[in-house]
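Figure 2 data, in text form.
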Amino acid sequence: MINLLFFYYKYNNEYIKDYSIKTNGYDGKIIQIKENEICFIESDNNAICLFDLLERKVITRIIHLTLAYTVVESLLLISKDLLLATGTNKLTIININYHNVQRAIEVSASDCIYTACLLNEYILLTADSNHRIIQRRIEDDNLKLISKKENAHDSGVYTIKN
């Protein structure tokens, strides 16, 4: 499936279409990872794409064996250098400076991770398909289990910043 991702800018309190890019099966998951870079998922080839907003082009597509059999559900910047991709059977940590997978952490096939959020720079919460909230500590680019809460959510976990 070919989809378009549209970019707008604000001029005199109006939003004006600037440009668009073609994506392969883009399904709405997009985050800003640096001042002039965004990241999105191409679900058709299960790639994580890094896109330069100034040059208006894809910098790289991260297609890696650890992503091959995972449906990526969400993206989260966990530090200035690391991106966390959550999915059906893995948490994948990606180094955005080197454009490579740094670590993949297996989760059981029934524990699809829908969403993830950071409580602070060290604590990560994930919401899985079994309605559990799992708290993990980020230690040297690894995730250590802290606690699990059963029947804790309907559709995910999110943070609201003041």
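Caption note: The chain has a mean pLDDT of 79.
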